[in-house]
Amino acid sequence: MPANADKPHLWKADTLESIDFYNDWFLKFAPITYRQQREVKTEDVANALKITNNLRSITPALLKSNPGVLSMLRMTTAPPLARDRLVGLAYTSKNLIGSMEGSGDKLPRIPPRMAETELDAHLTRVVDVLSEMADRDLFPWLEDPSVEPAGEEMIKRSASERSPINFYLGNPGHSPGTDRVGEDGGSYSSDFLAIEAERLRRQKAVDASKTALERNQLGQFSTPFSLASQITSYTTSICPDDSDLFMFEPACGSGVFISACIGRGKTDFSFKGVEIDNAYVRIFKDLFADYKVEAINEDFFQFIESEPREQCDLIITNPPYIRHHHIEQEKKRVLQERVRSRLNMEISGLSGLYIYYVLLSHFLLKSEGVASWLIPSEFLYTNYGKALREYLAEKVTLLRIHRFDANDVQFDDALVSSCVVTYKKTQRSAGHSFILSTGAYNFPKSED
Questions:
Q1: Among residues 388, 368, 369, 367, which one has the least CA distance to residue 378?
Q2: Among the listed ranges 24-38, 62-76, 334-348, 391-405, which one has the minimum average pLDDT value?
Q3: Confidence class of residue 84 from pLDDT cuts 50, 70 and 90?
Q4: Counting Cβ atoms within 10 Å, is residue 137 exposed (0-12), middle (13-18) or buried (19+)?
Q5: Alpha-carbon span 381 to 34, nearest angstrom
Q6: Helix, strand, coil proportions of the chain in percent (round to 5)?
Q7: Can you tell me the distance from the alpha carbon of 127 to that of 52, in angstroms, rounded to the nearest whole number?
Q8: What is the dihedral of CA 228, 231, 237, 240, to 10 degrees?
Q9: C-alpha dihedral over 142, 143, 149, 155, to 10 degrees?
């Protein structure tokens, strides 16, 4: 709650002071940041001009093959169109436009599950709006084919200057030292944002070096940073003493949850990440060398056999989603026996690997420690999810299960709906209840 939320007599003074702070920042830093943004957008405009033949060949087929060009095409209209305005005028889907333009965590793309005929109809309406509203003063050859396109540098400058303007109008709280990432509402230092951008760039390079089949068999579906940040923020808020904690990320990939925790200012934490794929380990070992991060290249189930018990205050992760038929029979037998002997629980041979991750991490977590797992929601209703349901009901205190909408798949290349399970390693008290939420993680549309 804001400090003066219960003092309405101070609100006017607070508002005026806030405006003064923003005006002071704007006068000092906006011109510099504006020029930096213009340089970046100029390259985007040059690419848009090239592939659209100076805006004369905008078609549904072009948008399919170059979805990322849409954000720049919105800036060529009079007036420039915000995303929501384009959605309304074209009677199209907000999800389609958002997917085509991408975000800090996702590359521009066409939604893979959208039917071709439906997609063509939506894109045709988008093209009609862009063509009708194109700025004829800035691009007169669109009105009169006999007019030669203006010099490339003039076009790039005119159109690129619209993007920084839109950037400032849409983000009045932006400052040179902080920025807003995804839907989590958190502010991050510019130094951290540079590290996170490099982590994502290198992760995508490793992802691209593998076939889809290889990544599927290894369960390598990376978590978007904005979602990792939201989960991390919620999980750390549960800890009564949020300082000097030890966070563990099993199957950490390039370390997105560790990155999110550091970005949230938890630099006094100690971190350990375990990952079987050394190509990913090298990323966060290089980038987070200045923090208290230990990076281990090892199979998780071998690693925990030699680790001390009850060492972690926090476990936050997205374990690999590997279906049972991709687990070697001998490994499956060994893991089933470990669960049986250590938790006195029987686990189905049809269980995915993520269930073994949750159950066998029990002994790494300290008493009163908190864990959040981003996992498939299938365990809630399948026979092979019974062991995990029993664990959450009997071995720990369940705090929250958040289920994403079935049509809101959290990963570009995973065809499962997801949920986030958060619990504390304590014995459940009589009459205890937990939160069941749905929709967006930070702003659930329902909560029971």
A1: 388
A2: 24-38
A3: confident
A4: exposed
A5: 52
A6: 50, 15, 35
A7: 12
A8: -100
A9: -70
Which phi and psi angles does 238 have, rounded to 5°? Answer: -80, -25
pTM: 0.59
Beta strands in 264-412 (DSSP E): 270-275, 293-297, 312-317, 365-376, 397-403
Show the tokens assigned to 212.
């889809």
* Rounded-to-integer distance, Cα 374 and Cα 321, Å: 10
Rg (CA), the chain: 25
Q: Is 426 helix (H, G, I), strand (E, B) or coil?
A: coil
Q: How many helices (H) and strands (E) does the chain have?
A: 17, 11
Q: What is the DSSP string of 87-135?
A: HHHHT--HHHHHHHH--SSS-----TTS-HHHHHHHHHHHHHHHHHHB-
Asked if 319 and 373 count as a contact pair (C-beta separation under 8 A), the reply is yes
Distance of CA 159 to the CA centre of its chain: 29
The token pair that represents 84 in the structure block: 């929501």
Instruction: Return the half-sphere exposure (C-beta side, CA atoms, 13 A cut-off) of residue 217.
Output: 8
| CA gap 244, 269 in Å, rounded | 5
Query: Measured between alpha carbons, how far is 3 from 402 in angstroms, rounded to an integer?
Result: 29
Count other C-beta atoms under 10 Å from residue 279's C-beta.
17
Burial of 42 from C-beta contacts in 10 A (0-12 / 13-18 / 19+)? middle
SS3 367: strand
